[in-house]
Write a structure and sequence with these properties.
473 residues, eleven-stranded mixed sheet, globular, disordered N terminus, alpha/beta, 15% helix, disordered C terminus
Length: 473
């Protein structure tokens, strides 16, 4: 029996718990124009200044609250400045979460109907590689018109970010959501926990924005070959991706764990890979009510390369998707190199909701005695920290060949061979599945809080939030 205790600030929202203003001196909180009794933010640059103030407070030895609350004022459009291509930046900064246990909500209840829109720029939410973004929640925000990646997820591999009731539409760039991890190298990494300077972060963001442009132009595609580390985990609950025009993927997962719950992808256009692409030890969980409608992508709606894993596919569906021979979930085989349009691209085409294609095993099945598990049901090999994880094929339907074309590849990925799952990967899989199930609790709290009277949020809480216990048997 696995028992997990979740201390979630969302529960405080659901139960109307009062929050106490933190001790650091804030510069960005103002009475919201649409509701003067609510303190929030109308400027993301000033919001970042207050995040740095919280970081400095903790770094200097101040008492850290249980969680942080940053409220975006309802009925507000936040115009973000471009990092590259402009002589002078016009607009605000992308939001840069600097601390774990942070909540970014549209209005006091984090409801998308409060109409908080972040638009323009190269990034909207930027997770730098020196941040361990554990239990970071982004609730009720709409993202539009980005030119690079709306969510640039480069946080530490221990990070877990949850998007609730968030919506992406009309974005253009390399990917709407870009999840990866930058290995430690040179002076790029800042000292962990130390407050950053905005000028320093602007320079790092400019380099990352340029790297995305270079990747789009296939100048730095080989950089991903050496990827050996895990990336952050992201969960999308009750979210939508509508009419985004992306070069690589709408949701690009390089080495991370991404879970989709009741999330819709509709009328997105992807040039190179798939709408939801998983590469280089990426783990994909596609839960109930997630759906793909009328999308166009070269490799279809969902792509899992030969070193990645479809951990869960249940009660999802897709309709009228086009662009690839597989209208469902495409699992690349070990002899393929689908990144390269000139190379062989073969694999297995799994229908949405076909649970025989994923690697999830019911606990009752695991406890059966004297059952020989065939190689096809293994997950991944046990590896040392600096080794490249290798893929293990799952049982699949008949293969589907995707025709080769004559365009330059985006990434030159070496095929991997399969082997059995070791102790590390089993623990990772169990944790990730448990994390997804426990999110059901978050959804319940998220829906209940809309029906409850809430107190005005003035700052981070210093009292213990209610605990939500979830036992998985």
């Amino acid at each position: 029996m696995l028992s997990i205790t979740w201390k979630l600030g969302a529960a405080a929202l659901a139960l109307g718990v009062n929050m106490v203003t933190a001790q650091p001196e804030y510069v960005g909180r103002v009475p919201c124009p649409s509701n003067s009794s609510l303190l929030g933010y109308t400027n993301t640059t000033l919001l970042n200044d207050d995040i740095v103030a919280d970081m400095k407070w903790v770094f200097d030895g101040g008492e850290e609250p249980e969680f942080y609350q940053y409220v975006l004022c309802p009925q507000t459009e936040f115009i973000v400045a471009k990092q590259i291509g402009e002589q002078e930046a016009v607009g605000e900064s992308p939001i840069i979460p600097g601390l774990a246990n942070s909540f970014f909500t549209c209005g006091e209840d984090g409801n998308s109907e409060n109409n908080c829109v972040i638009t323009g720029g190269d990034f909207h939410f930027y997770f730098p590689d020196f941040v361990i973004a554990e239990e970071v929640y982004i609730m009720g925000v709409t993202f539009t018109n980005v030119n690079g990646a709306s969510v640039y997820g480069d946080a530490h591999p221990a990070s877990h970010v949850v998007f609730l009731d968030c919506h992406w539409k009309f974005n253009k760039g390399s990917a709407t959501v870009y999840v990866h991890y930058t290995p430690e190298e040179g002076s790029r990494r800042l000292e962990s926990g130390e407050p950053y300077k905005q000028e320093e972060m602007n320079e790092i963001m400019r380099r990352d924005a340029q790297a995305l442009v270079d990747l789009k132009e296939a100048k730095s595609s080989r950089d991903l070959q050496a990827f050996v580390k895990y990336s952050m985990s992201c969960v999308f609950v009750d979210c939508t991706f509508l009419k985004n025009d992306d070069f690589i993927a709408t949701l690009f997962n390089l080495g991370g764990a991404v879970e989709l719950i009741d999330t819709t992808f509709e009328e997105n256009d992807v040039a190179e890979l798939s709408v939801f692409s998983n590469l280089a030890n990426g783990h994909a969980f596609i839960h109930e009510k997630t759906n793909f409608k009328k999308n166009f992508a070269r490799l279809g709606p969902v792509f899992v390369d030969n070193s990645s894993f479809l951990q869960l596919s249940r009660d999802n569906f897709g309709t009228a998707n086009s662009g690839g021979q597989c209208a469902g979930i495409f699992l690349e085989d070990d002899l393929s190199l689908c990144f390269d349009r000139e190379a062989t691209c073969t694999g297995q085409c799994c229908a949405f909701g076909d649970e025989t294609c994923d690697l999830y095993i019911e606990e009752d099945d695991e406890e059966e005695e004297d059952v020989d598990v065939p190689p096809e049901t293994s997950t991944m090999t046990e590896v040392e920290e600096e080794e490249t994880p290798k893929a293990a094929p799952a049982p699949q339907p008949a293969p589907v060949d995707t025709p080769a074309t004559t365009t330059t590849s985006v990434v030159d990925t070496s095929p991997q061979s399969g082997s059995s799952c070791g102790g590390f990967c089993k623990g990772f899989v169990i944790f990730a599945v448990a994390f997804g199930v426990a999110l059901v609790v978050v959804i319940g709290a998220f829906m209940r809080r809309r029906r409850l009277k809430k107190s005005t949020i003035a700052g981070p809480a210093t009292s213990d939030p209610p605990q939500l216990d979830r036992t998985i048997t």
